[in-house]
Amino acid sequence: MKLRHIILTIFFALLFLTYPGDSTLLHTYAYHRELFRPTSSIDPIRIDPYPIVVAGAIDPTLSARSVFVVDRYTLTPVLERAAHAKRYPASTTKIITALTAFDRLKPENIVTVKQARDEGQIMELVTGERITFENLLYGTLVHSGNDAALALADHFDYDTFITMMNKKAQELHMDDTNFANPSGLHDPAQVSSAYDLAIAGRALLDNSYLSKIVSTKQITVSDVEFRYFHPLSNVNQLLGEIPGVGGLKTGYTPEAGENLVTLYRRPDGYEMLIVILGSEDRFEDTRSLVNWINTYVQYVQ
To answer: What's the chain's Rg over C-alpha atoms?
Structure first.
């Protein structure tokens, strides 16, 4: 009996000690349980508006052998024709030339022109000229100067730079692409596709510094001693002609035909990349595609 009394005594003592009674703590918990309930923050899923081609759309009449039109941000394609066919990129190559060099140089860095080149389109660099990397970028992307692209490659060692260009293409998953030179002059080993050049164009546009350069219509640059001045004009005739066109890069060789990578911002603010390769008239083809986009492409949530 004594053991039973001892156990009961301990039980009631513990009950008395742990009973909260009419305490403030009990009221707080009982009437504000949401304060103590475990919570988790779950971000809502965001789906950006994406483009669709409306029913009954009429395919545009184009001379280009390869076409790829894609939304810049969602990467939703709206028109594809032989988008993965390997073709000669010509001077659209310079998109990767600029990106490769930009990974390693700052705009204010000075490049010495080791050897002036005079093949094809040039900005008329002079051997020994000392010019900033920024001004070579304008010569490469605005004027499409082959000598500017080659000066950048020579700055790093030509063969090493080509290796770096191909590595950059691999990093961007440009699986249809191989580079053999930095300028786009014809080489049977130098190939790309409309799909891959859309990837390259998007990467360049994501760089705000380079994006500003490709939207430049005209500019004059000089060497660091102000001895040589180079007036540069953008080869893209649509820049300043079609509202919403913000560059990007032209290309032409007899073997490649006419190539053009274009950034187009619609009146509603949505941006699309237009890539045409092997065209007989790249500017007319792009005009037709801009009209087709405005007529038949809608954005939905």
So the answer is: 31
Strands 218-222, 229-233: pairing kind:
antiparallel
217 as an active site residue: the answer is: no
- Domain-embedded: residue 25: no
pLDDT at 64: 98
Among 66, 91, 193, 279, the active-site one is 91
- Is 150 in contact with 118 (CB distance < 8 Å)? no
**Per-residue confidence band for 47, with pLDDT thresholds at 50, 70 and 90:** confident
Q: Is 94 a catalytic residue?
A: yes
Percent of the chain with pLDDT over 90: 81
The answer to whether the beta carbons of residues 184 and 122 sit under 8 Å apart is: no
Does 183 qualify as catalytic in the annotation? no
Phi-psi region of 157 (alpha: psi -120 to 50; beta: other; left: phi over 0): left
Catalytic residue among 66, 144, 192, 215: 144
**Domain span at 235:** 50-300
pLDDT in tens, 17-30: 555 555 555 555 45
DSSP 255-288: TTEEEEEEEEE-TTS-EEEEEEEEES-HHHHHHH
**Where residue 253 sits, what CATH number does that domain have?**
3.40.710.10
In a domain, 23, yes or no: no
Catalytic entry in 66, 94, 192, 215:
94
Asked if residue 292 belongs to a domain, the reply is yes
What is the pLDDT averaged over residues 108-133? 95
Query: Is residue 241 situated within a structural domain?
Result: yes
Residue 35's pLDDT is 47
Number of domains in the chain: 1
Write the burial class of residue 27 (CB in 10 Å: 0-12 exposed, 13-18 middle, 19+ buried).
exposed
